[in-house]
Amino acid sequence: MLKRKIQSYLESYLKSDSNKMLIVAGARQVGKSYIIRRVGQRLFANFVEINMAEDCYGPRMFANAKTVEDFYINLSTIAGDRLKEKRNTLVFIDEIQAYDHLLSMVKFLKQDDRFTYIASGSLLGITLKETPTLPVGSITIKHMYPLDFEEFLWANGVGEEAIAAMETKINGREPLPEALHKRMMDLFRKYLIVGGLPDAVNSFVERKNIVEVREIQREIHHLYRVDAARYEQESQKKLKIQRIFEMIPSNLENKKKRMVAAKIEGKRQARMNDYADEFEYLIHAGVALQVQAISQPSYPIVENSGKNLLKLYPNDVGIFTGILYEEQIRAIMNDEGSVNLGSVYEAVVAQELAAHGFRLCYYDNKQKGEVDFLIDDIEHLAVTPIEVKSGKDYYIHSALSNILNVKEYGIRQAFVLSNEQQIRTEKGITYLPVYGIMFFKRNATDKLVLE
After folding, report:
1. d(CA 395, CA 383)
2. pTM beyond 0.90
């Protein structure tokens, strides 16, 4: 039974009597249905679950439910004896995006206020974009990702008190004792292999069978490939979406790592804008994380992300290492110098930052170079650059030094993440062990590494 951070958020929402319907969005197999089911069944005497994707490919009972009364009639045929009062009845609409008219109906279901509702969606961003009458003001969307590193630690028996003590030390720029550092690096490398997909984590925790873990990851990766163009009607677009999806792992092994339009279909004159819809589809499906390039790193980042350069990372680092290394995990666990894990380290940092609510960007400037990540530092109303290093040359980072020398950027702090135990700050750059990324948090009210 995996503990997830989103659980407390769901509990608060379901107890709040909100006038909006909460929709938990994210890629398939990240644990959306499981955690909603777990919380809902505990808080409500009557729990009703309808999977609209299954209905869409099966009886299609809700295909023509265009009014609230139509919806209730079909709902009552499934769970009439469990439909009581709002205070004790929760209706969970799973995969709500399967019928776009249900999204338009959300407003009226909430106005009717007959039951408590919650929903989930795997391709929600795509469906909302195509829904003619958006339920503006009637929904709250909460994104869910695979287990982050802290959740992985919980699953492997590391308690919250121990993690809090580590956070205090790292926030205070104190290194962990050597034995604890080694333990954390061991678990971090295992996280690179296992990733955060719940089925893979459960398999690893229960049986420690890497072959089984890899098989789970392969099955989900195949599912993502099929899903990548599931709701796209144009066959040519489907092929391009799947081609881009398949390119992600090999593309990250290149020096620049960014997507190159000419390589997608072998067209020399192709431009990134030619594939804007395909990129957007993969990102909204939750199977790829986008990192946008910016050349003017000022707060807030969203106002500066205009460059037409893009990196795509897999949504789960375990799937990524499975593609690269399959069952040959020795290179990762033994930190073999002959193997460059740079793209893997970047992928896990991207995954971690996304899970913590950060907008993902990187710095790209022809004169000054490239920095792996830029994130908003809300506390200081500035931008914070992050460089990720997997080898022993972690102190070599000319682009990071260059960006700090530009006073107009107003950068207050920068970080280098590596395998090193020691923590120190030199010339505005703080060197942290890579597992410290789990303490980078988005909200200004949270305790922050960004100080």
Report:
1. 21
2. yes
